Amino acid sequence: MGYLEIAGYIGALFIGISLGLIGGGGSILTVPLLVYFFGIEPILATAYSLFIVGLSSLFGGFKYAKQGLVDFKVGILFSIPAFTAVYLTRRFLVPALPDDWFAIGSLTITKEIGILSLFALLMITAAYSMIKDKSQESQSFSSGASFNIPLIILEGVVVGTLTGLVGAGGGFLIIPALVLLAKLPMKKAIGTSLIIISIKSLIGFIGDIQAGEAINWVFLCVITGLATMGIVIGLIFRKRVNNEQLKTGFGYFVLIMGLIMIVKELFLQ
Length: 269
Fold this sequence. Notes:
By secondary structure, this protein is mainly alpha-helical.
């Protein structure tokens, strides 16, 4: 086992720790960790990420459900279009994507480069949501619209498709939608989001299995186990750290990682 793989296993533990500490964000690093530390092909890495994110979020979601912080009615309304979109994306869209997308000068944007670049842009967007001023975030949430069923369904389709393409949970998109469109309190939105993320991610992973992806179950279970252990550690230390400072610092880390991925995939080929 090389030093890079050892660092990758440690990274899987820290992904779980970040999920336990701040309730999200760690899953955004799963695909880069699998690709750059373990050398896993990007499309397969997005499939593995769905499994890891799904089980990790399910663990956290149960914790919130025990405290009555999951709105199952809203979760079902959001989940049905999200489940459908993520399954169809993994089962049919991802396998059907061409190997070569387009060319920019001497650079050919392949399927792998395109998926990783899209993921990097998602990381940058997620980083912004973690870094931006908390007071601005509170103002935007408090000015929420009335319960809007069509927009909730549309948001479910968009998030499901995005999750299917890049293998990320999409919590930073789901939580604002639940607060703004379903008018849920923040803590209940987080708990509901974790349940939605877990089930739609695992359903997307089923689409990969049916599409014939070769799964290394031993490796996948080890990484998932480490991430789950990290969540337990994070939950233990959650009350001892400044949540907002941690979230902001992690946001800057994700931003730097996203920018590095963009440079590597588009300019250092």
